[in-house]
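Troubleshooting: if your tokenizer reports a length mismatch, compare your output against this known-good record of 152 residues.
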Amino acid sequence: MKYALLFPVIALAYTAITGCNDGEKKMYKVGGRVTMNGDTMPAEGVVYFMPVNSQGNRGVGAFGTDGRFRVTTWKPNDGLQPGSYNILVHCWKEKPIGFGKGVSFVNRKYHNQDSAVSGLETVTISKATTDIAFDVSPPPQPETSLEQTTRK
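Known-good structure output:
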């Protein structure tokens, strides 16, 4: 009977010594710049960091025309968990509505998270970094809006 209280006492002592683990993973501050053909971006947009093999959580980094972004996963600018990420870049002239196509300033290959399709290298995060850089290109031919195509 005197040993019945031993386990709870040991568990309480262990928690007091090691601290509680609330399940949060290590986060690294991440930022950088996206350019179009080496120059500024034509509009605001978003860089998506998609975990390779769906391991981990995605992050997003909004950018202005200067292309600079900081990545958010849970809280503003908290960065990314360690791991490898494929990259998507969206920069819209006209955002898609519902299942519509929208009009993109960037080549649609950058909307694909497969690095073999997008041509953007997979990024591995193992420390804080603010110098990630992506250079994207416009669509091969300027895209037209649905409104412009229906008027013809």
